Amino acid sequence: MPELPSQWQTPSPSPLPAEFVRAVQEYALNDTWQYLAQLLWQRGIRQPELLAGFLDSACYQPTSPFAFGAEMEWAVERIQQARQTEEVVAIWGDFDADGVTATAVLWDGLGQFFQPHRTLVYYIPNRLTESHGLSQSGIDQLQQQNCRLIITCDTGSTNQAEIDYARSLGLDVIITDHHTLPAERPPVTAIINPRYLSADHPLATLSGVAVAYKLVEALYERLPTVPQRPLEHLLDLVAIGLIADLVELKGDCRYLAQRGIEQLQRQANPATATRPGLTKLLELCKRTGDRPTDISFGLGPRINAVSRIQGDAHFCVELLTSQDSHLCSHLAEATELANARRKALQKDLTKQVRDRLAHLDLSTTGVIVLADEQWHPGVLGLVAGQIAQEYGRPTILLSIESDADWPSSPLQGQSLSPPLPAAPSPYSRSADAHGGSPLPTPVRLTLTAEAHSPLPLARGSARSAHNLDLYQLVQDQQHLLHRFGGHPLAAGLSLPVENLSLFTEAINQRSLQQLDLSSPVVLDIDLEVTVAELGKDLFQTLKLLEPCGMGNPAPRLLIRNGWFTDVKQQKIRDRKGQVVQYIKTDFALWDATVRTGFPGIWWGHYPSELPPQPCDVVVELDWNAYRRRYEVRLIAVRSAANQSVPAPEPSLPELLDWRGQSPIDSPSPSAEPLVLRQCPSSWAEFRLWWQRAQQQARPLAIAYSRPEQPPPQTLWSQLVGIAKYLSRTGQIATRQQLRAKLEVGDRCLQLGFRALQGLGFTLTSRDAGFQIEPGQPLSHPDAPTLEAIQQFLAAVREEQFQRAYFYQLPLDKLRLLLTQVSAEATATKPE
What we know:
It is a single chain. The protein is 39% helix and 16% strand. The chain is built from 25 helices and 24 strands. It has a 5-stranded parallel sheet, with helices on both faces. A 5-stranded mixed sheet has the order 7-8-9-11-10. Strands 14-15-16-18-17 form a 5-stranded mixed beta barrel. α5 runs antiparallel to α9 (235-244).
């Protein structure tokens, strides 16, 4: 289970200076102004003269782009030279929301000074087949298009080798980025990166899209008569990238986000819209564009989903910048479907990771490092961030690019792609319709020799916790890595599979020197309110703090002694009406101050997880534009302090460890033990034996031997061989015989049967067992059959992992876990 916050921290109210209170009251919209004053004070906005610039963007004085100094001067000079000589300029972007919007900002912004598709092109790496940053293969492509200048956005600061390669081909490079800097300045024409500025500089926290915007702003200042469109038309894109990238919204970051949301709100109205792609996206995600949550929960995930699912993010730039309403409608629909697929993959992967973590000793784990061949690389970062937050541990999740576990027979020679269907390209962009060469269509990831390093690699994402500098932590192990980049809170990396165990051990040792794992996981709470105070007035007051994000989080509200009614589960449906495997729970929240419950939702949770008794809850107040109602999003819940009742101490059986020894050599217990001789493959199986021993008042002796672990593909080949033998001889085999022969459980056997049926075998259940007939074997297995085989292999791998875990688990740890399970079962038993 996740390491839920063991401590809820509420601020201690303190008297506020009268001058400050009077200044806050000038901005108050209703009688809840005291909450605004309290929140501003808690967040360090304590001088009356700072209030105007913080609460009203019109009162903020933005910083000049030339505050970047000589680097900005050099960049502008080189771009002007390229314009005068009609050189081909390439924008090198990145595939996440910040990188995509940064590319779109430069495409629209530089497009006022260059001719798109003739002297201005752009390139974005494929998320599934390429890495972040510059690459020699991409540089070669641009060089073949006669490119003479590359301008990066949201990437490139640490690509020393690739920069040297570009220079060797005669290409100049301008870097605009916000990620970690190299030890020495790279040999580029200019590098515009806010990390060169002091931490208190108003530009210090700019994201990639905001840095790109500042470069365009500088060009607008130097060549004011050239642009035909106002600079402000870029601000909606800037707001999307800023908020989606979770940078600290202070200084110019907050100002640009505020102005950008104002511009974004115009896109929701067809009468004022200038970007048909954003208009359609807002319609699909049922948002109005006036809230930062419209980006963080609506636009941002959808833009990110395209590259997460399909790899290629080029059409997202087209979606954001094209004026073709028909094309944008098709692109937005494809984006919506990609996001639905992303939700399902994320939910499934999160469950798998939690299941794996249930068998790890987190008390000695500083950094969670997990890898698997079946994990889709596009959602690793999302799940890593979720796990890092839930468990209070930096988390690294990796996908292993290896075909070692793919079946060799009877599918010898067949190419197996990941079990993700390629999303159809909804458009075909022609050169004569838009000028220039066609936009690359989304591609499906196929594992080919050309896509691999000479050594199998594990690729994935890392997310930090406890403000640990994850970048430095991983960089310390760079001798074990293939590629690496990022910043202190998030990073991407790849390493040879053979280095994975060394890397895991080394990074854990290093992290344990910096992390205090005994410290509680703290949930910071901003205000304590009642259910009666939830609604329009409080919402309007809290909205004055927006845009919220890093450094200025959405206010968390504590409600004591509340309870839930009208609890129901709802599955999300995509645009085609199909159910997505992603759930939410709706409820009504009550306390003693109301006669009507207040609506709320709990994303990713089931109704059974809500306690039936009075409890304390932490929520965020929101406005649901689609349902046109105020509602709360549940953040955390726990039993109310005055309602908690200690659970009775269960009577537990004695646990004996006979692993690796003969029962006759073991101490003779007071009662004949119940002996478990087969190594279990799940906690459910182990608990059944534990409960039997408890019911019979007998000790439980674990006497299983070390489990054999043949490769999963060997078991698949054995199963196919058994099926061929039984179909040839007409003999019958029982389920017990098949399980014993293959040493697998019922779930694996059932998945194996499904895969055999896909190959053309016919399975018939008889009284004595199963009869298998050859049927009409398929010469070329279809995609569902290939996926069924992969599911069988994954299930075998999981069972083997579980058996190895149960074999090596120390007796004291096993006894502790079983005791906790029994205590939980007793505590949750209905009265």
